Amino acid sequence: MDKVRVAIVGLGFGAEFIPIFQKYNKTECVAVCRRDESKLNECADLFGIEKRYTDFDAMLEDDEIDAVHINSDLKSHASMTIAALKAEKHVASTVTMGMSAAECEEIVDLEEQTGKVYMMMETAVYTREYLYFKKLYDDGEIGRLQFVRGAHQQNMSLPGWPDYWYGLPPMYYPTHAVSPLSDILGKPVQTVRCLGSGRINEEYIKKYNSPFAVESALLTFKDSDVAGEISRSLFDTIRQYKESFDFYGTKKSFEWEQCAGENPVIHSGFEDAERAAVPDSDYMLPAEIAPFSLENQIVDEEHVSFVQGSGHGGSHPHMVHEFISAILENRKAHVSAKVAANWTLAGIIAHESAMRGGEAMGMPQFTQY
Predict the structure, then answer these.
(1) What is the count of structural domains for the chain?
(2) Torsion angle in degrees (nearest 10) through CA of 107, 350, 121, 138
(3) Cβ contacts of residue 111 below 8 Å, gap of 6+?
(4) pLDDT of residue 305 exceeding 80
(5) pLDDT tens for residues 41-51?
(6) With contact defined as beta carbons under 8 Å apart, do 52 and 35 qualify?
(7) Are 40 and 7 in contact (CB under 8 A)?
(8) SS3 label, residue 274
(9) Is the peptide bond before 220 cis (omega within 30 degrees of 0)?
(10) Contact 338/328 with Cβ under 8 angstroms?
(11) CATH number where 198 lies
């Protein structure tokens, strides 16, 4: 296989990936899928894509599609992934992997049975900030890691979101907070203990029987003496949007910026600290898709209404490159099914721990890679 023929499912957020797949010399964007036919045609016309599907199952019968990139609603990620793997397609899926342990375990099993690539497209481990820190760490500048912390805070209380979001337990969408911690250590989460805090709108509580405004968990990692902490909020908690990590080492430490645009802080020595100008990560990518990682640059003027560029810290082209490379090299993706299951279920189990008053709970064995 010289080129991977990709279909994109979901054309809201998913449309941002179309020009990346179109410009990458190892892929063809051969089809798009969306339930709303008029919006499907509007997007497909703009990008010049001939094959269009309103029915996901019909699309899976197309033998000219090698891989599907799923950007659908949160609750359908797992069912669509399972159907696609059973149809012998490679699968990339936006976060999270699923909404239950049973869904995640089935995807793990199908990845093994089919030999197809599954990748959860977790942006947090491909942002310019994470890649910057990882290079410092790999080069030995940080020393030994002593503690790791992640947070994802967002206020979704205003109307306009899909209905299923309202009242969602904060830890049901955990992976932006969990993934940098687990990834930098190279270890899966092993145990979780979580406390809930505060109380959200009574109408929201009824949907998932979850009262908490904030959930905060302590994590242990397999074969590691480093502990971690993650915090999540979604409703009735005021805070500027933040997806962050703080890493503390014996030589240097990294702390996320307090307000957007301030730049993160590198601590060194005993009391020294300075703000770090985090570079773009375009140098790590094939030339034709490198511009999509650049900050504050529109890379596709013609399609700017659909494509904002530099999405999620410049992570989008890195995720595409890794997914396609895994297919062409006949290997598992970096965020494979077991890894995705670990990061997803760390949050789901954390919520269960919070509902039990902070009980320590172990992770399922199938997530221990």
Answers:
(1) 1
(2) -120
(3) 85, 117, 118, 332, 336, 337
(4) no
(5) 999 999 999 99
(6) no
(7) no
(8) strand
(9) no
(10) no
(11) 3.30.360.10
Helices (H), the chain: 18-23, 37-47, 56-60, 77-86, 101-114, 128-138, 175-185, 202-208, 311-314, 316-328, 337-355
Please indicate, yes or no, if residue 271 is contained in any of the structural domains: yes
pLDDT on residue 297: 64
Q: CB of 98 within 8 A of CB of 75?
A: no
Phi, psi values for residue 283, rounded to 5°: -65, -15
Sort 219 into a burial class: Cβ within 10 Å, 0-12 / 13-18 / 19+.
buried
Residue 294 in any domain: the answer is: no
The distance from CA 206 to its chain's CA centroid, rounded to whole angstroms, is 27
Q: How far apart are CA 205 and CA 235, in angstroms?
A: 11
Contact, 145 vs 226, CB < 8 A? Answer: yes
* Residue 270 placed within a domain: yes
> Please, how many CA atoms are within 13 Å of residue 57, restricted to the half-sphere of its CB?
1
308-338 tens-digit pLDDT: 555 689 999 999 999 999 999 999 999 999 9
Contacts of 197 by beta carbon, 8 Å cutoff, 6+ apart: 212, 213, 214, 215, 216
In a domain, 78, yes or no: no
Q: Using alpha carbons only, how large is the chain's radius of gyration in Å?
A: 20
Contact predicate 149/229, CB 8 Å: yes
Quickly tell me which residue has 């959200």 as its tokens.
200
Range of the domain at 177: 124-283+344-367
Contact criterion met (CB below 8 Å) for 369 and 342: yes
Weakest-pLDDT range from 31-45, 99-113, 249-263, 288-302: 288-302
Tokens 């290079």 — which residue?
A: 135
Q: Compute the distance between CA of residue 47 and CA of residue 49 in angstroms, rounded to an integer.
A: 6
**DSSP per residue, 227-271:** EEEEEEE-SS-----EEEEEEEESSEEEE--SSTTS--EEEETTT
Nearest to 214 by CA among 271, 255, 155: 155
Contacts of 99 (CB under 8 A, 6+ apart): 74, 75, 78, 172, 348
The answer to whether residues 337 and 111 touch, using CB atoms and an 8 Å cutoff, is yes
C-alpha dihedral sign at 19, 20, 24, 30: negative
